[in-house]
Design goal:
With 372 residues, the protein is an alpha/beta fold. It folds into three domains: 66 residues, no CATH class; 239 residues, Aldolase class I (TIM Barrel); 48 residues, no CATH class. The chain has 13 helices and twelve strands. A nine-stranded mixed β-sheet has the order 1-2-3-4-5-6-7-8-9. It has a three-stranded antiparallel β-sheet with strand order 10-11-12, with no helix packed on it. Helix 7 packs parallel to helix 9. The radius of gyration is 23 Å and the shape is globular. Bound molecules: pyridoxal-5'-phosphate. The site of pyridoxal-5'-phosphate has 7 residues, from strand 1 and strand 2.
């Protein structure tokens, strides 16, 4: 057994395995109930990084009674992005014209308490070979698909040989230009990134990674080494972050995370507003919080460190980018903008209507004020 398999097999999966929880028998029984609704998994590597109760790693993986409280909240549902509704074949979401999401398993190195796929992740059961075959067949039969995102669960928990086979099948599809792997493995089970895994991955370029990091404490020396191995075999590394109340919903934590990612050759790609997923209400922040954080980042640090802030539109509308407003006024003569310091600038339009008195010609109809 390899180290990563051992760390996975020694996961905390029961209430009695959890670190830093109340001794109260009553509370433990509540957590047992939470665990029946939503599985628990903290692999032994991640467990060893948890420094105490309420630390940012602890909050992401240790269940709390709050998960049962919001089951009654009518806006929160089990599949808020309507992924099941956008599946032409099982475990494949075809929402956008030229790319698909292919879920190749339902297990993760840790089970995040705020998971958007809380309805299925960590439960027993597997994505069968037949299901996977149908997904790959669908891609083969749809020449408009030029980009596949392998997800799950976590694709990197699939054994080397099987991963090699799946990547090989996908690569045999001529119209499939790029393959992306969506994974939380490098940040939560870095021992999985072995020489052998790298020797498999590098055969399938162009291969991109979308990793998942929420807090700078996740970037331990082990994690930094795993990411370096992936970068060294030429995989462009990206990161996605969920905005989480009490974990990363402040500008200084977020800035530290994003700068640390860049330093490790990881390009921050998305910050997500938390989805309307059942059992996760207590992690949600206001949308304004995200916009305020973005405002504190843009211009204040490397542009490359600043990801897109998105809401994944409820019901399956896809990702929509939000920006703090920088347009004061926009008419046919000029655009009035503010910079990161709040200073105001005027940019003259190309139509050169200079002789006309601006004040008298600008009407309400020609003035566009962007929302927010
Ligand atoms: C996020 C997502 C994608 C990929 O979107 P990009 O903006 O291209 O990264 C594709 N399919 C689904 C269903 C998604 O949720």
């Amino acid at each position: 057994m390899e180290l990563w398999q051992k760390q996975l097999s020694q996961s905390a999966v029961k209430v009695k395995d959890l670190p830093f929880i109340s001794d109260s028998e009553e509370y433990r029984q509540v957590l047992e109930k939470v665990g029946e609704n939503y599985p628990i998994r903290i692999n032994s590597y991640f467990l060893s990084q948890i420094k105490g109760p309420n630390d940012p790693l602890w909050k992401q993986v240790v269940p709390t009674a709050e998960e049962l409280n919001d089951l009654e909240h009518e806006d929160l549902i089990s599949d808020p992005l309507n992924e099941e509704g956008d599946m032409p074949v099982p475990e494949l979401v075809h929402r956008y014209p030229d790319r698909v999401l292919l879920m190749i398993n339902n297990q993760c190195p840790i089970v995040c308490r705020f998971c958007t796929r809380k309805r299925k992740i960590g439960f027993p059961g597997i994505v069968t070979r037949e299901t996977l075959r149908q997904g790959i067949e669908y891609i083969r039969n749809h020449p408009e698909i030029r980009d596949v995102i392998m997800s799950g669960g976590d694709p990197l928990l699939v054994p080397d040989k099987e991963l090699d086979r799946i990547l090989g099948e996908l690569r045999s599809i001529p119209h499939l230009e790029i393959i992306r792997i969506g994974t939380r493995v490098p940040g939560t089970l870095p021992s999985r990134v072995t020489e052998n895994l790298c020797s498999i991955l590098k055969k399938y370029h162009p291969l991109y990674f979308n990793m998942h990091f929420n807090h700078p404490a996740e970037l331990t020396p082990e994690v930094e080494k795993a990411c370096a191995m992936l970068a060294d075999i030429g995989i462009p590394l990206g990161s996605q972050t969920v905005l989480l109340k009490g974990i990363n919903d402040n500008s200084s934590t977020m800035k530290e995370l994003l700068q640390k990612l860049l330093k490790n050759r990881i390009k921050p790609y998305y910050i997500y507003q938390a989805d309307l997923t059942e059992g996760t209400d207590h992690f949600r922040t206001s949308v304004q919080k995200g916009l305020d954080i973005l405002k504190d980042l843009m211009g204040h640090t490397s542009g490359m460190a600043v990801p897109y802030f998105v809401i994944d539109a409820p019901g399956g509308g896809g990702k929509v980018r939000l920006l703090p407003n920088s347009v004061v006024e926009h008419n046919k003569h000029e655009v009035v903008i503010t910079n990161y310091e709040g200073k105001v600038f005027r940019y003259a339009q190309a139509n050169g209507n200079k002789a006309v008195d601006r004040k008298t010609t600008v009407s309400a109809e020609t003035t566009c004020q962007l929302p927010v």
